[in-house]
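Problem 12. The chain below contains 327 residues. Write out its predicted structure in token notation.
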Amino acid sequence: MSWTGGKKRSRGSRLRRLVLIAVALVVVVVLVVVGLWYLLAGRLPDEVPTPPGVEEPPTAQPEHCPDVQVVAIPGTWESSPTDDPYAPQANPASLMLNVTQPLQQQFEPSRADVFTVPYVAQFSNPVAIPPDGQQSYNNSRGEGTQVARDFLVDRMAECGLTKYVLAGFSQGAVIAGDLASSIGRGDGPVAAEDVLGVALIADGRRDPAHGIPVGPEPAGVGAELSLAGLDVPGITMTGARENGFGELDDRTYQICAPSDGICDAPAGAFSPGNWLSAAARIGEYVGNPVHAQYASFVVDDAGTTSTQWVAGWAASLIEQAPAPPHS
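Solution.
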């Protein structure tokens, strides 16, 4: 073997080693970036059961306690953590204002306290370059759930005879529906028997097998059922709610406009057997403004819009609710 040939082979070996080291470094960097991406984007917090703390209902409750507590949860980009829960101004066009304002005008706070959950209400684009500066869906949904849960826990502890009405739109409907599900299975922040009803508009976890449809009943399902299993930084599609709404199934109402991809997405979109049927529906969603038009979406033959229906339904529940004694 010549000295020149050995030198060439030695150089070739060093070059291969350098290439392997470079590849390994790239892999490590990519893994670190992806890991940080997931951490910064946020994971959905684990649900912590918070069963009601009042074992025996009191015979009376404090004077400041309302007969009925309405909890409204706005959708994406319709709230803010610093918003006034009794006079929301973060988004003057917030859909839930079409429900909460009529109720506040109709009832005294002692009869029905109307609380709008203030939370970040954002949904960042996980692949935006540069980053769009918004909170991820996971972080936003987790914050909204925690704020609503904490409020209900505190109200339940203070006001053992108050009844509850929950309502939400879009991301807010997912949060309200998740709370209703936990209440209905007995580990929520209030007792199931104290909830008069739940109304969900454009619920991303809509399951036709649970709840009561109001207006047209689309053939599809919520986007989180359609894309169940999808888990990218900041966006976790959690699938169907286990056991639906439990004891609240017969008191939970679902409003979903056909072709709204948030609540009327193709079932099992990730299943190879459903790819063709799912692809055929894509055209329904592109440029479709229906998700932003629930204030004018008609749900019955009388021309009642979705928000008019929810406001009227809630008012009826409030009117029929008991008036507990105060101490």
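Discussion. Residues 261 and 286 are 9 Å apart (CA to CA). Students who got a different answer should revisit the alignment rule from Section 12.3.
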